[in-house]
Amino acid sequence: MESDHPKGLSIARQCQLLRISRSSCYYEAKGENPLNLELMRLIDEQFLETPWYGSRQMARWLRREGHRVGRKRVVRLMRKMGLTPVYQKLNTSKPQLGHKIYPYLLRGVEITEPGHVWCADITYVPMRRGFLYLVAIMDWASRKVLSWRLSNTLEADFCVAALREALQRFPKPLIFNTDQGSQFTSLDFTQVLKDANIRISMDGKGRWMDNVMIERLWRSLKYECVYLHAFETGSEVRRGIGIWMDYYNQRRPHSSLDDRTPDEAYWGLPMAGLTEAAA
Question: Of 16, 61, 167, 214, which is the most buried if we count CB atoms within 10 A?
Answer without folding.
Answer: 214
